[in-house]
Amino acid sequence: MRKTKPTNAELRRFIIDHFNDGELETFCFAYFPEVKREFTRGMPFSQKAEMLIGYCQRRELDAHLLTSLAQERPQSFQAQFTAQIKAAPVIQSRPRNPRQVFISYAHEDEEAAKRLAGDLEAEGYPVWLAADSIRPGEKWAAAISRGLEESGIFALLLTPRAVKSRWVRSETNVAIELEHEDAMRVFMLQVEPCKLPALWRVYQRIPFRRGYEAGLAGLLSAVLDERPRRSPRPVRSTPQNSFIHEKTGLEFVRIPAGEFLYGDSKEKIELPEFWMGKTPVTNAVYKRFLDANPQQDAPYDWNNRQYPNGKAEHPVVNVSWHDAQAFCEWAGLRLPTEREWEKAARGTDGRKYPWGEQEPTPELCNFGKNVGATTPVGRYSPAGDSPYGCVDMSGNVWEWTESLYKKGENWRVLRGGSWYSGKNRLPAAVRRRYHPDLRYLSGGLRVAVSPFISGL
Length: 456
Prior knowledge:
The chain is built from 14 helices and 15 strands. With 456 residues, it is an alpha/beta fold.
């Protein structure tokens, strides 16, 4: 009775003798779909068999291949390779482990997925990762289903390739259903920019584009939050309150629909829901726009289209209203109206400043030349934040709005005061007019967007 492992030549001969071309493709689709994706039109049948065997050897999936062949052709396999392969055990799902992480990824992103899996396991989290977690003789679809049933955390590596992958889309949509049932927590990991399916856009994304270590820390921080919660999604009872805009990297905060007290007279104004940039547009973000639009003039304090040294996170200045509109057109965003700007700055209770009624101090905002220039966005957070968490809405830079200062003229409204302004310019209701063609050494912009427009 033969006891040795079949050679590659014997496996190739077995596959050729007991499968036809269509049956081999079906076999690979069921057990090894990554191999099936590599098959090309007109590829010889024998080459497909060699590709399958080579793939399994490189991945150390020899036992999986043998068990799968024995399962699909039991009599022929037993006759040729007697007593070599044990019967595949009955595969049953284990109870759901709330700490087990199911990593969903496109096969082209396997290296990144394996790195993430290793780091999560080092932190004590069990990981389900295809094809490492598929058991010998288990079909791919059944294994994916089992992995989703056993895991309590779903981590999706967002890349253009993942968005195109039929497997990734199916896994993610199932995970979202499980999340709605409070059986799973869903985390979107923004590895590369990509346009997302509508159902995925409502989930806040953990950025990995600015560095893997920072992204991993963000994921671990989110995963370690064991409080019962749902991931944000568009239902009125638990609305999403922030998201990251993919093209610019800007964070937006939700400003709910409803009344607020507008202007010095505190007139009651009703506004629909909208989203406001948490920060002014920074030099680093504006440079993305300039790099993508070489015909666009740079601010005059830039040198060779490069912002001043050390000021990547400072708000961009010396931009005209038309410059701001061009940025918005490129980004798929818009300038806020001055009513929207004021609501985001002062909330609904008619407070004088974003932080309340207290007069401005150097600890709350950048004004009155107390620093002598702009400061990095968020430097005065959270003490100087608005009720919705917007930063620098008093001081640092004046911010363009969409609104005309007065009907019948072309001047536009600026809001917020700047690093140069006296404290009389800092109340949230203060308006300033400026010509849209002119650039201003203390003038920048903050952007807005309507709820979940296409392409976010």
